[in-house]
Design a protein that fits this description.
Elements: E1 5-11, H1 17-30, E2 35-39, H2 45-55, E3 57-58, E4 61-62, H3 73-97, E5 101-105, H4 108-118, H5 123-134, E6 141-146, H6 149-155, H7 168-184, E7 189-193, H8 198-213
Parallel strand pairs: 1-5, 1-6, 2-5, 6-7
Antiparallel strand pairs: 3-4
Bound molecules: ligand Z5A.
């Protein structure tokens, strides 16, 4: 592999993205591949600050801020995009330039599925609006971990944050949104069955990753 490679991980709550990224890290270590792990929202000073505002939590604990109460959906989208713009500039593009593999926990497809579809702003509008932010930083591969939100939410052990606390119907719409996106981008987005064991999900993921990095 001569150039950097950009992999994003998407899914509903408790789909297992963090667990999968941990397994892939170990696999890359065993192959002496250079990579970084990063996440959205967050990963820069601005992004981590915005994360607290958007999710109303800090280090996994609820914070008593009412800044994002009654947050307008368009404002919410803009906050995620602001975090992303800074993240691309400070972390993603420099890492790719240094030929690293970037493993990113959530990225633009989350904005389209959550704000575009579940919040009702519109999938195509969210894609159009965000395309200006992500130009030059489109993932090479997106692994979407698909799971019934009832099962995913039952796996989450920490206190639910502002978005996790939404209704089951909202979480179902997020899943529908990801499926629409996967249909639109079959080359980039690969659907993994996240109800399988962690080991099987990892093996399915590596099959996809290997096509690009071996
Ligand atoms: N959001 C948005 O709305 N718009 C945007 O543009 C962006 C994000 C970028 C970020 O929260 C929130 O922001 C998120 C979307 C929204 N929504 N919410 N809320 P986050 O980053 O803090 O949360 P998350 O991404 O949803 O992570 P998560 O809920 O912690 O899930 P996960 O990382 O996918 O799962 P995990 O931590 O690996 O696993 C969860 C549990 O399940 C854990 O106990 C594991 O041991 C277990 N697990 C994992 N895999 C398996 C398998 N295969 N079998 C059984 N058990 C498993």
């Amino acid at each position: 592999m001569k150039k950097g490679f950009f992999i994003t991980f998407e899914g509903g709550e408790g789909a297992g993205k963090t667990s999968l990224i941990d397994s892939i890290k170990k696999y890359f270590d065993s192959k002496n591949l250079e990579y970084i792990v990063t996440r959205e929202p967050g990963s820069t000073k601005l992004g981590e600050h915005l994360r607290e505002i958007i999710l109303q939590e800090k280090n996994g604990k609820k914070i008593s801020s009412n800044v994002s109460q009654n947050l307008d959906s368009k404002a919410e989208l803009c906050l995620f995009l602001a975090s992303r713009a800074q993240h691309i500039k400070e972390v993603i593009l420099p890492s790719l330039k240094h030929n690293k593999i970037v493993l990113c926990d959530r990225y633009n497809d989350s904005s389209v599925a959550y704000q575009g579809h579940a919040r009702g702003l519109g999938i195509d509008k969210a894609i159009d609006f965000s395309s200006f932010i992500i130009e030059g930083a489109v993932p090479d591969l997106t692994l979407y971990l698909d799971i019934d939100p009832k099962i995913g939410l039952s796996r989450v052990q920490s206190k639910l944050d502002r978005i996790e606390s939404e209704t089951l119907e909202f979480h179902q719409k997020i899943r529908d949104g990801f499926h629409i996106l996967a249909k639109k981008n079959p080359q980039r987005i690969k659907i993994l069955d996240a109800t399988k064991s962690k080991k099987s999900v990892f093996e399915d993921a590596i099959k996809q990753v290997s096509k690009f990095i071996d």
